[in-house]
Structure formats: structure tokens, C-alpha cells
Specification:
The protein is an alpha/beta fold and 377 residues long. The chain folds into two domains: 177 residues, Rossmann fold; 180 residues, 3-Layer(aba) Sandwich (Rossmann fold), CATH 3.40.50.2000. Helices cover 37% and strands 16% of the residues. The protein contains 13 helices and 13 strands. It has a seven-stranded parallel β-sheet, sandwiched between helices. A six-stranded parallel β-sheet has the order 10-9-8-11-12-13, sandwiched between helices.
Length: 377
């Protein structure tokens, strides 16, 4: 039995995103409690590297060409050099490249944490199917929610292995509306030309096709065409696909929503947007277990989410939010209106997150998982 304190974390890169924030929180916590984590990036994208404790080594191992499989051996060399016998991979691609060089190494323990669930194309499904073929019975799959486990096992016919579910958690001390008590909420809203009596719907998501921002715009148009309903604003926080972003801005004009849709781009700290919003939404056709939704609820916001991934495991219908059918703007519009009517439970919604989805709860579970001895057979 070996209980190594050095743990290697392998991830595609550190752009602005939920999976990357997730990894950073675990790495920093392990470092604080005297483990020796090392982070291996498979690209040069290190936007969030500054958020990792300066005592944690960050190493870039990048392909020399598209079909450069020597990267697997170079990953292995770095892991061995840092004395790590436990390897935590974020997403199947990172796992695949790492596992290739550890197929017959029984003294190493590999964990796979998939942060994507639904494939976005047939080719992507095939790639991921191939990646999952390398899963060994001594590897551990760490799912983010029960729905993800159910879906992936069926979709990819996953090989037998050790499995567990650990929900995402957030720092409820940081995501706390009380920190903004001294800030005039109405002044902030007015800076975006949102009247204090208007309603504001917040969407925090990278501008990528699977996030279905176009469905959000069409849902907003549906509400604006209703009689006797206050016309809400939609604030979109996030950047990404430039071509898609331009198309969305064109759609705003086509739907005559100018002045009611606000694209504010990427922000490393999105708390002020939670503070000024009335409800939070995601209109994705694919999600796993949204950290942004948990952050919003920590601010007491009800959530109108599409019924994908683990949404049903965080939403209590008509209390802390409402679920909508993905790809259906009519259903999304109805969910928004329902959430706007049920936005008086802010304190209770925050307590719900503190009790079920706190960062401390998540970190304790990961420390327990990663501290288990390696059984060499």
C-alpha cells in the first residue's frame, strides 16, 4: 500500500471555464493541506494559471503536430519526474493521452473526471468512444451528477471500473450577496440602461453552439410580444465563438430587441452580475452540473434551466427554479416567467446551496477519494 502526497492533474488547458475553475479549487486546497500537486497543461492556453497557488508547478506538454503521440510519453516523464503515482485527468481526451503510457503500470492510479456529457457531433461521439475504451478496472470515474453517470454508461457502453459521484461545490463565502450591501444595486443597473423597475435575466455561459444563446433571444422575443407583461432585459456574460457572437447580435436587431440584450463579454469576477439580476438562466442543449447556476443560487437567485444534465438534481421545481425543455424557446419563456414570479425565496435558496453544494463539502469528498491507498496487485 502506498499513500503518495504528490498528485498530477492533467487538463487540456486553463481557459476561462467551469472545468478549469473546478480543477484550480482542488489543486489549491490540496496544496494548502500539504499535498504536492502538479498541473500538466496540454495546450498553451493558461488564462487562469494566475489563480493557481504559486507553489504549484505548472507544466505545458504540447503536441508537435496533430498526430504526435509522443506527447503521451512526455506526459508520463513529467509525472514520474514529480513523483506522482496518482493522476487526475479532466475530460476523456486528457485521460486518453495520459493512459496510453500507463496501460501496464499497476502502481499508478488514474482518475477521470468528465466535464462534458453530450457529444456535439457523430465524430465527437466516436472520438470519445475510443478514449473511453482505455478505461481499466482499477481506474476511477468521478461523475459530477447521477444523470451524467446514467447517460455516459449507456451512451458509451463504459467498461467496468470503479465509479463515484461528487457534486460540484462553490465557495459560498465568496458568492455572498452580503458582500455587496454597500453597493447601490440600482446604480449598477442604470449603468446598463436597466431601470430599477425592469426585470433582468442573467445568462452566464461561453458563446458556443451548445449553449443555445439563440434560443434565449427567441424566448425573450416571445415574452416581449405578450400583452400585460413587463419587458425583461437579458444580460449575457461570456465570450467565445466570434462568428456566432456576431450572428447573435444580428438576431437581436432582427427580433427588435435592441436595448434589451446586453453582451458584456468575459469577466473573471461575475458576482456583481448575480447581485443585480432577478433570475439566472441557462438555455443549453448540453450541460453537466453547472457551477454558474450554483453561484447564482448562492446569491439567492431562482434559476430557469433547460432540463439537461444534472439540472433536476439541483432544482426544486417552483421553489428555487424552473426547468424548461431544451431547444424550445416557448418552454424557456414560460420558465422565465415562472421564475420571475417565484423570486422571493432568496434567503432559503442560499441556505439550500450552503447545505448541499458548498465548496468545503466537495473538497472533503475529493480529499477522501484521493487519499485512499493504492492497492498494488
Amino acid at each position: 500500500m502506498i499513500i503518495p502526497k504528490s498528485i498530477a492533474f492533467v487538463i487540456h488547458g486553463l481557459p476561462m471555464g467551469g472545468a478549469e475553475k473546478f480543477l484550480i479549487s482542488i489543486v489549491n486546497h490540496l496544496f494548502e493541506i500539504k499535498y504536492s500537486p502538479v498541473v500538466i497543461l496540454l495546450s498553451n492556453d493558461d488564462t487562469l494559471a494566475c489563480e493557481i497557488n504559486t507553489g504549484v508547478p505548472i507544466i505545458k506538454v504540447v503536441k508537435n503536430s496533430r498526430y504526435d503521440l509522443s506527447i503521451s510519453n512526455r506526459i508520463k516523464q513529467q509525472i514520474i519526474a514529480h513523483g506522482a503515482q496518482k493522476i487526475f485527468c479532466v475530460n476523456p481526451y486528457s485521460y486518453f493521452l495520459t493512459k496510453l503510457s500507463f496501460l501496464f503500470e499497476k502502481e499508478y492510479k488514474i482518475f477521470l473526471s468528465p466535464h462534458t456529457t453530450k457529444p456535439f457531433s457523430g465524430y465527437n461521439w466516436f472520438q470519445t468512444f475510443v478514449y473511453y475504451r482505455l478505461i481499466g478496472k482499477h481506474d476511477t470515474l468521478v461523475y459530477l451528477c447521477n444523470k451524467q453517470q446514467e447517460y455516459l454508461k449507456k451512451k458509451y457502453l463504459l467498461p467496468a471500473c470503479q465509479q463515484t459521484v461528487i457534486y460540484n461545490g462553490i465557495n459560498t463565502d465568496k458568492f455572498n450577496p452580503a458582500l455587496f450591501d454597500d453597493i447601490d444595486r440600482n446604480n449598477i443597473r442604470e449603468s446598463f440602461s436597466i431601470d430599477k423597475n425592469d426585470k433582468m435575466i442573467l445568462l452566464v455561459a461561453r458563446i458556443n453552439p451548445e449553449k443555445r444563446h439563440n434560443d434565449a433571444l427567441n424566448a425573450l422575443s416571445i415574452i416581449h410580444k405578450m400583452r400585460g407583461v413587463i419587458k425583461p432585459h437579458l444580460m449575457i456574460v461570456g465570450a467565445g465563438n466570434k462568428r456566432l457572437s456576431d450572428k447573435l447580435k444580428d438576431l437581436v436587431s432582427i427580433l427588435e430587441l435592441d436595448g434589451y440584450v446586453h453582451f458584456v463579454g468575459n469577466h473573471s469576477d461575475v458576482r456583481i452580475f448575480y447581485y443585480i439580476a432577478d433570475i439566472f438562466t441557462l438555455t443549453s442543449e448540453s450541460e453537466t452540473f453547472s457551477i454558474a447556476a450554483l453561484e447564482a443560487m448562492a446569491f439567492g437567485l431562482p434559476c430557469a434551466l433547460t432540463d439537461v444534465g444534472g439540472a433536476r438534481e439541483m432544482i426544486v421545481e417552483d421553489w428555487n427554479g424552473t426547468l424548461a425543455d431544451p431547444l424550445h424557446p416557448d418552454s424557456i419563456a414560460k420558465a422565465w416567467l415562472n421564475a420571475l414570479k417565484n423570486n422571493q425565496n432568496g434567503h432559503s435558496i442560499r441556505e439550500y446551496v450552503e447545505q448541499r453544494f458548498s465548496l468545503n463539502t466537495m473538497l472533503k469528498q475529493y480529499v477522501h477519494l484521493l487519499s485512499q491507498p493504492i492497492m498494488i496487485q
